[in-house]
From TrEMBL:
<feature type="binding site">
    <location>
        <begin position="106"/>
        <end position="111"/>
    </location>
    <ligand>
        <name>NAD(+)</name>
    </ligand>
</feature>
<dbReference type="Pfam" id="PF06971">
    <property type="entry name" value="Put_DNA-bind_N"/>
</dbReference>
<protein>
    <recommendedName>
        <fullName>Redox-sensing transcriptional repressor Rex</fullName>
    </recommendedName>
</protein>
<dbReference type="InterPro" id="IPR022876">
    <property type="entry name" value="Tscrpt_rep_Rex"/>
</dbReference>
<keyword id="KW-0238">DNA-binding</keyword>
<keyword id="KW-0520">NAD</keyword>
<dbReference type="GO" id="GO:0005737">
    <property type="term" value="C:cytoplasm"/>
</dbReference>
<feature type="DNA-binding region" description="H-T-H motif">
    <location>
        <begin position="32"/>
        <end position="71"/>
    </location>
</feature>
<keyword id="KW-0963">Cytoplasm</keyword>
<keyword id="KW-0805">Transcription regulation</keyword>
<keyword id="KW-0678">Repressor</keyword>
<dbReference type="InterPro" id="IPR009718">
    <property type="entry name" value="Rex_DNA-bd_C_dom"/>
</dbReference>
<dbReference type="InterPro" id="IPR036388">
    <property type="entry name" value="WH-like_DNA-bd_sf"/>
</dbReference>
<dbReference type="Pfam" id="PF02629">
    <property type="entry name" value="CoA_binding"/>
</dbReference>
<keyword id="KW-0804">Transcription</keyword>
<dbReference type="GO" id="GO:0003700">
    <property type="term" value="F:DNA-binding transcription factor activity"/>
</dbReference>
<dbReference type="InterPro" id="IPR003781">
    <property type="entry name" value="CoA-bd"/>
</dbReference>
């Protein structure tokens, strides 16, 4: 985490508005830009052209320039972007100028892995509490933190100023844990449980489902295999979809 230099300071070139109203897609890409910028800074780069930063972040340069324009950053022709300044701007917009305390609930296999991940600290987060409902896990020490019972959450939330809750429990326990987090004032939740949570308005939930990501990759693998199997003449060799429709019949079936 770089030392913060307030991007909204008067007279600062490329200063960021107090809090720009960003499109969700832009917000989702800012952490990728920040990761790439930190890598550039660590290797001694003081400036970076838009093409170089876009390549490092895995986006096209036009999209990157548009995203960064929302922050008031346009770079310098022939030079590119000031790496340190852009880090400051993005960290400010993402609220990373203070290290946010995180409570991780559920210390099974996934929870253990998350609790031991060293990358949180360098990205602006502090795992402040590990909690579980299983008495067999309470008292276990993971990465310097002792697992505490979920019933202690109200007191811990106040003591540690918990800002974000991470749920790594089985699906059947996740909604109950979400309710407990909301009850103690947590309004941002990262959910690793394979289920959809019901939360009040004003509570933000991000869902991470590894099985869904694998299923999406499976689709792409299936699609590539299907394309490879097509005959060279261009005729249709696709098998019928479940329900009796062939892939080439679908458009006619739905009237397109």
């Amino acid at each position: 985490m770089s030392q913060h230099r307030h991007p909204g300071a008067p007279g600062r070139a490329g200063a960021v508005p107090a809090l720009p109203d960003l499109p969700e897609a832009t917000v989702a890409r800012l952490p990728e830009y920040l990761r790439a910028l930190h890598n550039l800074a660590e290797t001694g780069h003081e400036t970076v052209p838009s093409e170089g930063l876009a390549s490092a972040a895995g986006v096209n340069s036009a999209k990157l320039r548009k995203d960064l324009s929302h922050l008031g950053s346009y770079g310098t022709r022939g030079v590119g972007y000031d790496v340190a300044l852009l880090i400051d701007q993005i960290e400010y917009v993402l609220g990373l100028t203070q290290r946010r305390a995180v409570a991780l609930v559920g210390v099974g296999n996934l929870g253990h892995a998350l609790a031991g991940y060293d990358g949180f600290a360098s990205r602006g987060f502090r795992i402040a509490a590990l909690l579980d409902a299983d008495p067999a896990r309470v008292g276990e020490e993971i990465n310097g933190l002792v697992v505490r019972h979920i019933d202690e959450l109200p007191r811990i939330a106040v003591e540690e100023s918990i800002a974000i809750g991470v749920i790594a429990t089985p699906a059947q326990a996740a909604q109950r844990v979400a309710d407990q987090l909301v009850a103690v004032g947590v309004t941002s939740i990262l959910n690793f449980a394979p289920c959809v949570l019901s939360v009040p308005e004003g509570v933000d939930v991000r869902k991470v489902d590894l099985a869904i990501e694998l299923q999406i990759l499976s689709f792409h693998e299936h699609r590539k295999a299907s394309l490879t199997a097509l005959p060279a003449t261009g005729g249709s060799a696709l098998t019928a979809l479940p329900g009796g429709f062939g892939a080439t019949d679908t458009q006619e079936a739905i009237g397109t």
